[in-house]
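Final report, closing paragraph on structural work. Over the funding period we assembled a curated collection of sequence-structure pairs, and we close with a single example.
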Amino acid sequence: MGASHRRLLFTVSSKVVLLITLICAVVAGSAFAQGIQGLPGNAAFAAEGRGVSENKLGSVLFFNYYTSDLSSSQVNTRVFITNANPTQDVVVHVFFVDSNTCNVADAFICLTRNQTTSFVASDLDPNVTGYLVIVAIDSQGRPASFNYLAGDELVVTPTLHRFGLAAMAAARRDGNFASPINFDGTTATMFFNGAQYDFLPYTMVLDSFPSQVAGVGAPLADTRLYVYSPLPDLATGGAAFSGTLFFIIHDDQENNFSGQLPLGCFLASDKQRILSIRTSPNINAIVPSGRTGWATFYAFGNRTIVCNTSGDPVSLTNVPLMGATATKIGSATTGFTGGHNLRYATTFSVPGYSITIPVFSPGCPSVDLPTRGSSLCPASFPI
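Its predicted structure, as stored:
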């Protein structure tokens, strides 16, 4: 009887635990599906790893900041790119996007199997600051599935912030295909819609920054943001973007404050220090000496992208973001300096995003794949 009683208790207990687990799962699932209160975008897709990442290989690499200055012996960027495929050569199309003008310069790099290569920005795009987009292409120059690319960079900025960044990789998700050439016969479009390529970030997270006010035992800190919305047309450059970054600044006492910064092609150099964010009271009052803060932010502004290979337009009022941060604390000789890519809380998934590149032969062998298109358009539009 005792044994039966124990089995009964175990059975009842198991059912109760199962019921509680199901209830918790439903509640957690409902909360998870709702995203993060006050932040636009899809938090579930971000948490599930359906967006770009610095911790994987991909077919497109984003290097969030580069700079060089030929008049300086220090200010420069060294970029590293690796083909991790042991059996296949590939060509990558490298796009240098100027942070001031949105103008684009480009080059091809031919990578043999298992090859790594590097270059300094002062050799290929001297005296320019901006970001890099590197796209795996086929032998005709069309964006291609090649989830074997990795990269990183070492940066010394004009403010002498020194840091390393891994490339943010976007994987191709639709199989071993290349993108078809668009209706114009000269370009091809990549769709970052979670079906063809990974989603891009929407709401960014600066997870911690020190007070920018020096004090006893708290040396002066200088925190910078290098933020941009990727240019949707790398073939012609397209229209200049004019938008706004909306920030929620959090102190270490759970108080929240909002602020804004203007955003063009890239966050302007005179707005990159965290103190530039316009808040009331100002950042130094929100995060006084010896304290820390953190921030979330996203961008809004009008931008037009194409939604299919026919070039049909879609108008956006919000845009995806990419970027990095760096901090110096104390003197250059005895203090700390470092940086990292900004984390993101949500993905830009409705409707997604597109980036168009010019198509022409790279002049060296690469992958050859069948084509498959994608679309961001409503169902009434053709792919």
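Confidence is low (pLDDT under 50) at residues 1-34. Residues 2-33 form the longest helix (32 residues). We thank the funder for supporting this effort.
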